[in-house]
Amino acid sequence: MRFADIKGHDDIKRRLRELVDNDRIPHALLLEGPPGAAKFALARAFTKYLHCTDRTPDGDSCGKCPSCLQHDTFNHIDTIYSFPVVKKNSKPTISDDYASLFHDFLNEYPYMDFEHWLEALDNINAQPKIFVEEGQELLRRLTYKARQSRFKVVLLWLPERMNEDTANKLLKLVEEPFGDTIFLMVSNNPRGILPTIYSRTQRIGICRYSDAEVEEILQESGIAPEAAHDASLIAGGDVNEALKLANVSEERLRYFQLFVDLMRKAYARKVGELRQWSVDVAGLGREPAMQFIDYCSRLIRESFLMHLNDPRLLTLNKAELAFTIKFFPFINEKNVEDMATLFDDARRDIAGNANGKIVFFDLAVRVIMLIRRK
């Protein structure tokens, strides 16, 4: 991954180059911003540039020296990848146990789609974490001096998914780092990072892509212009989301149908059918269920915006628009806040490992009461 391989973010690339060129690299650097904004790609390009022995005049890694070739094959001895994983049969689990799987994931999904990482881990009900054993392993590896380069770099994806024991283990390393070690963290949710670690990092905010940039990225990946345009309007700058929307994945179609079923059955007060609906949604698994709730929240928001009669505010595809044109009168100023709170609370409960069947049946029953409020 080189800077030239990444669309946009020219100011961030310049800033990262200057850190290396001026020899002012902080011992702990955090790239923070929304998902699907190429943050981890920038981190990889920065590390490759740092280790490159023949940098180009325009400020990029050469892609040809031994160091660059080793980065391309994930074999650079002074680069350590750390990322969320799931336990293997309750045994101590570290990132290296999933190294080959993670390398394939990086090649296939350079914008780091967490949903696809869950699929790769083959456990949709899991909540991947960076466990305390990972902290112990990093401490062991970092005690060795950099061998091929001046600096060892720890590329840590999603530090907000460190459990508390892991964070406390790494705090010492971040507070009193080895002189040849750089922690380069990439976060989608910096508020979830242990404050004592967060406060000791130099932070660079990565903005979302513009709709035009997302559309261009999609077209370069082979998406038809019309589909790329529609998806870019809906995705909110998230390339991963745009790719899913453009490809009209079965998962996204299922979310739409589940939302339609919920609203129609709630309006008709079909409690028995809603009980089965709650079983079906709970069966998606914890992470997909939370993604479904996010999807519902978006459609509720879009339905309320329909009252403003300004198409420029909408980010709906054709199927969603066709449904919302008929549905939007049922989302109004009398119920929209309570409806939004209801789905937010459900997401919080699912994230806290509550029983999905109970959470979604309770949600469905409450929607019955809210949807007729005018």
- Main sheet record: 5 strands, parallel
N/C terminus separation? 54 Å
Going by helix content, strand content and strand pairing, the class is: alpha/beta
- How many runs of DSSP E, i.e. beta strands? 5
Query: Could you state the order of secondary-structure elements as H and E?
Result: HEHHEHHHEHEHEHHHHHHHHH
Helix amount: 40-55%
The percent range for strand residues is: 5-15%
Q: What's the average pLDDT?
A: 90
Number of H- or I-type helical stretches: 17
Oligomer: single chain
Descriptors for this entry?
single chain, alpha/beta, 374 residues, 17 helices
Characterise this structure.
By secondary structure, this protein is of the alpha/beta class. It contains 17 helices and five strands. It has helices spanning 10-21, 39-51, 66-72, 99-108, 114-121, 132-142, 164-175, 195-198, 211-220, 225-234, 239-247, 250-267, 271-282, 286-305, 318-327, 336-351, 356-371, and strands at 28-32, 79-82, 152-157, 181-187, 202-205. It has a five-stranded parallel β-sheet with strand order 2-3-4-1-5, sandwiched between helices. Helix 1 (10-21) runs parallel beside helix 2, helix 12 (250-267) packs antiparallel against helix 13 (271-282) and helix 12 (250-267) crosses helix 17 (356-371). It starts with 9 loop residues before the first helix and ends with a helix.
Task: Draw up the topology in text.
Elements lengths: L9 H12 L6 E5 L6 H13 L14 H7 L6 E4 L16 H10 L5 H8 L10 H11 L9 E6 L6 H12 L5 E7 L7 H4 L3 E4 L5 H10 L4 H10 L4 H9 L2 H18 L3 H12 L3 H20 L12 H10 L8 H16 L4 H16 L3
Parallel strand pairs: 1-4, 1-5, 2-3, 3-4
